[in-house]
Each structure stands twice: as structure tokens, then as C-alpha cells.
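[Automated response] Your request has been received and processed.

Submitted sequence:
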Amino acid sequence: MSVAPGDQQAGPARGEVRDRRRELGGPASLGLDTLVRGFEPAPAYAISARFDVLAHNRSAGLLFGNLGPGPSGPANMLHLGFTDPHWRTLIADWEQEAARHVAMYRAAMTVHLDDPAWTTLPARLARLSPDFARFWASSDVAGPERRLKRFRHPSAGLLTLHSTSLLMADDPMIRIVILYPAAAPDAARLERLAG
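Generated structure:
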């Protein structure tokens, strides 16, 4: 069976959605790795509207942990946020951030309600996480915005970072997220983290 660029398949193991464009060398893979590396030492990553990690730089990997693809496709930040206990500790304002990310997913999903690639993840997460089910039931919607995010990193300590999202002009379903220090102590902690 051939898959056209842009077609999506649900990953069998973790229920994450596989972006076939990346595997086939389509727009999602063109230059994203180079682009996010250019933001070093700030953590930066490229994500789809479904929160699939399409590319990330070394600093993002050091901050979040493994963001690389698994056997079922790209890592999914929404899935990690609700199923990996490390993320609840890492994200200082987890409850607020988790609710916001569910609202962002719901807003992006409104134009994909008949697409199984979009409905599979929330259905699975609602089964795996009572917190996800609670936030999903609230029916809140939100969009990306520039904001402060706080992290409790096991080796870097408390980090306060500005989060800025940039949409890719040739594919607005892809966002580049850059996390840059809010103050000099945060910059020093990020530098120590990068070692």
C-alpha cells in the first residue's frame, strides 16, 4: 500500500499519530532539525498541531528528556505529559499547563473531527489518565500564546522560561516553540544544563 505525503496513520503501540510526511521526506522534515538547532542554547522544538514532536534541539532533549521517535512514530508531548510521571514533576505548574494543552488540542481538532488521526489520541488518553478525561470533559479551547513556563529540572533546578510559538509559513500546522530564559539566573541554569 502506498501512502501519499501528508497521510496519517495511528501508531499501534502508544496510540500516537505517525506523520508520514516526515518519513517520506515531505515538508515536515525539510530543515526543521537545522532550524531548531539554530536556537541553541535555548530549548526549541517543532511540533504538529497534534503535539507530535517533529524535531528538537539538544537543549530541549536535556530539558524534557527523550523526545525522539519511538516504534509507533514521533513522540507526542500531550501523551508524555499525561502518562510519564517525570513530566508532572518537571512542569512546575502542571495542572494549569496540562489543562491549557488539552484546550489547545481541542481547538486545533475542531477542523479534523472526522479524522481518526485526531480522535485516536484523546480517546486513548481519556482511558489512560483521569486528569486528561477531566480536562477533556471541560470542553475548553485555547490557542498558542507567548507565556512564561516554569520547570523543576532535577539537575538545573527551577527554570522560568518564556515560551514563544512560531508558525511555519509553508505549513501552519507546524509550530516552532522556543523556550528562552526569563532572567539571568535562568540563563545560567540553562547553560549549566547544557554542560
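Summary generated for your ticket: Residues 1-28 have pLDDT under 50 and may be disordered. The two ends are 46 Å apart (CA to CA).
If you did not submit this request, please reply to this message.
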